[in-house]
Specification:
256 residues; alpha/beta; Rossmann fold; 48% helix; elongated
């Protein structure tokens, strides 16, 4: 191998090394850019939730802040939507599938309206007690009742809340909030809500369903609309998905 061959080999090795180093740097920049974009999306979501929480706290005007939200509890944007609908529509009877911070929000909005009552179906006895303690702490006992309703399969294959503790003389439900049972209960765990409660609902009732970005809840909304052709669904553009459904129930009842 002569001098020129050696020189060409050295140049080739150096060029290849520089290329590898450059490609590694480009790859690191790509990863850093992706992380930055992902963080930006999360920051935007978090900022939106902070705005919603601030608006919610201002709207409720409670003597003390709400307990922690998001995660297992409803997100601030969902709770704000529920509260806004109650303040605007002034329902007499609200039925809630699940209980917790949302019960406090609903009860406080009814209190601000000066009328109405929320009945919350809660399958877990311990959690029902915790919600009762929350209601008492915020002095909202006159506006909310937690009904301990264990999950059962007496009326459907899918476990759903026992209706034994729902007052027999309960006036028609004006607003139904569907945020339970937990998704881990069974596939399509929340689907029974509308078929089971539609006979108790007012003719101009409204349904607000949480977590409707999840596949089961998306399918639930689709099946509800197929079962009740006069049902219209509106996406509320919330963090975890929220859908508001409105319909004239008279024709739906005749179809049952």
């Amino acid at each position: 191998m002569d001098y020129l061959d050696v020189l060409h080999l050295v140049i080739s090795v150096v060029t290849l090394t520089v290329l590898v180093i450059t490609l590694r740097k480009v790859y690191k920049i790509h990863l850093a850019t992706y992380d930055l974009l992902s963080s930006g999306k999360e920051a935007k979501t978090l900022f939106s939730q902070i705005q919603s929480l601030y608006a919610l706290e201002r709207t409720l005007d409670l003597k003390k802040p709400l307990p922690p939200v998001r995660g297992w509890a409803g997100s601030p944007d969902f709770l704000l939507r529920v509260g806004s609908e109650i303040l605007a529509r002034k329902p007499n009877i609200v039925m809630e599938c699940s209980s917790g911070v949302s019960t406090v929000v609903i009860a406080r909005c009814l209190q601000l309206n000066g009328s109405g009552h929320v009945y919350s179906l809660e399958h877990d006895a311990i959690y029902a007690q915790k919600t009762n303690e929350l209601i008492a702490a915020y002095e909202l006992g006159a506006w909310a009742t937690v009904l301990h309703s264990p999950l059962e399969t007496t009326k459907s294959d899918t476990p759903w809340y026992s209706e034994k503790n729902i007052p027999s003389d309960l006036p028609p439900i004006d607003l139904l909030v569907v945020d339970g049972p937990p998704a881990t209960t069974a596939p399509m765990a929340r689907f029974p809500a509308l078929p089971r409660l539609i006979g108790r609902m007012a003719s101009n009732a409204v349904v607000i369903a949480d977590d409707t970005q999840r596949p089961d809840e998306t399918r639930m909304i689709d099946l509800w609309q197929k079962s009740f052709p006069d049902l219209t669904a509106t996406d509320c553009n919330c963090e975890k998905g929220c859908t508001m459904l409105e319909f004239a129930l008279e024709s739906s009842r005749r179809a049952q």
